[in-house]
Amino acid sequence: MDYKFNEPKSAKCLVCSCVQSKERQILKVCNNKLKNIWEFYCDKKTHDKWSFTSASMEQVTQWDKTVNELFDLPPGHFAERKYVGGTWQKFERYY
Ligand SMILES: [Zn+2]
Fold first, then answer.
1. Which of the chain's termini has less CB crowding within 10 Å, N or C?
2. What is the C-alpha separation between 93 and 83, in angstroms, rounded?
3. CA distance 52 to 72
4. Of 64, 82, 74, 67, which is closest to residue 29 (Cα–Cα)?
5. What spacing in Å lies between the alpha carbon of 21 and ligand 1's midpoint?
6. CA 42 – ligand 1 centroid, Å
7. Its pTM surpasses 0.90
8. Of all helices (H) and strands (E), which one includes residue 24?
9. 89 Cβ neighbours under 8 A, 6+ residues apart
């Protein structure tokens, strides 16, 4: 699948360390309006603030090409799915 996001491939995003180490899969995605950054993380309930690290948009779409499905998720929205390949549930967020 081609890279679909409007952001440059080199744009920075935030990922949790579990996703970065590929211990866990990307099940939650936030287009953070306040920080103007995409965030990709697993379904663990809590992460401490040190467990986030930056990656490039291209890296994340290489790890999991199905996140391309969210290229048109508007800023301030959040999406989650139960498993990779599942349907994304989208929500509006205050951030
Ligand atoms: Zn995680």
1. N
2. 22
3. 24
4. 67
5. 9
6. 4
7. yes
8. none
9. 79, 80, 81
- Ligand 1 geometric centre to CA of 2 (Å): 25
Residues 25 and 44: their CA atoms lie apart, in Å, by 10
Q: How many Å lie between the centroid of ligand 1 and the Cα of residue 8?
A: 24
Smallest CA-to-CA distance from 52 within 30, 73, 81 is with: 30
19: CA distance to ligand 1 center in Å? 6
Dihedral angle at the C-alpha atoms of 38, 43, 44, 46, nearest 10 degrees?
50
Ligand 1 centroid, distance to 65 Cα (angstroms): 18
List per-block mean pLDDT (blocks of 10 residues) for the chain, which spans 95 residues: 92 96 96 95 89 95 96 96 96 82
